[in-house]
Amino acid sequence: MTALTLSDVLSRMGDGDDGHVGSEISYLKVDIAGAELDALPQMVSSGAVGRVRQIGVSFRTGPAYLAPTRQPVAFLRLVRAFQRMHTELGFRLVHYALDGCTERTEDPFKIRYTNFDAVWYRPDLELSPEEGERPQP
Question: What's the angle, vertex CA 49, arms to CA 73 and CA 116, rounded to 5?
Answer without folding.
Answer: 50
